[in-house]
Amino acid sequence: xxxxxxxxxxxxxxxxxxxxxxxxxxxxxxxxxxxxxxxxxxxxxxxxxxxxxxxxxxxxxxxxxxxxxxxxxxxxxxxxxxxxxxxxxxxxxxxxxxxxxxxxxxxxxxxxxxxxxxxxxxxxxxxxxxxxxxxxxxxxxxxxxxxxxxxxxxxxxxxxxxxxxxxxxxxxxxxxxxxxxxxxxxxxxxxxxxxxxxxxxxxxxxxxxxxxxxxxxxxxxxxxxxxxxxxx
Length: 232
Description:
single chain, alpha/beta, 2 domains, six-stranded mixed β-sheet, globular
């Protein structure tokens, strides 16, 4: 049984019809990448799942329909979201940001010490205001704040955008750690090499619809798909 199953998802910004019948599935403990050029609807797909844009269709998580719920209600179902904008609270310290990720009355498998072990740089800067940190550090912080809420599925939008190559490699290794601890990942990414390396399955999106679904080996062999929908 799928952990997350999306069927016939349509999404709108005002009168603009952005998603046009998206179907997508993620199983428990699976890393799935959603690939595509800018502007095809990848980020909108994640925002629609989280109830951040107007949408129709079905979004079922762990057997429960989410479409129509408010965003905070969706989070409490066990979904985490790390936006591309790296939404930190700039005036608060790293540790204060992490504490805000805790859910009242819920014990998480992830502690702040776990986060510091995974990202030693955050421990070094735990008393630093988040707003003065680098983009890579803010990306780490946003991911950790979401993990502390103990999601069963975390959706990460462009985690490697603008990061140095060595940091990109670290992000990929951390995603594997999440999978090993039973957290499913939906990765919205442009870097094909990273997605092929860490994903169990991949989707390619073009103009608001899914144009390819398959394993990494399938996409490596799908030369025309890569040429039409991924290459610049």
